[in-house]
Amino acid sequence: MKPFLSNKQVGCLTQALVISSLDYCNSLYFGINSALLRQLQKIQNKACRTIFGLPRKESLEPHLQKLHWLKIPERIEFKLLLLTYKALNGSAPKYLTELLHYNNAGSDRLPSLHVPTANTSIGERSFSVSAPILWNNLPTDIKQCESLESFKTKLKTHLFRKCYNLFD
What we know:
By secondary structure, this protein is mainly alpha-helical. It is 58% helix and 0% strand. α1 runs antiparallel to α2 and α4 (72-88) packs across α7 (127-136).
């Protein structure tokens, strides 16, 4: 089928069929073991190879960057932090909002989120534990974004730089 489609069409199909499946409920993947993360990354890598028609031995990193795709661990962080932002700004379901609580809310500096103690490894992967950890490690300028769109843009840029070691 690829001979009948342009690269742009292959990219659209890949995004719609493969990448959207990787992103579906991917916040549940936070904290999974590295073997499972590698399997998910292989799927994304294969999608990239398909779009560009790359041989198996060619480096993927410049092509993933050209697509502006975050790698799987950063995609998971992006989704969790997006849910966290929405919960803190009243646009997430109440059951998520109720899981997050501020520390030092009366201080002059930006308050951090309380990280509850988890008794199990599965508990460490829960939203109530993972979201505050990721949020508290975000740069202040991202946490202080006034709109969802600016938050998403700054967050993706931050994670993209982290993912590909592109620091100023």
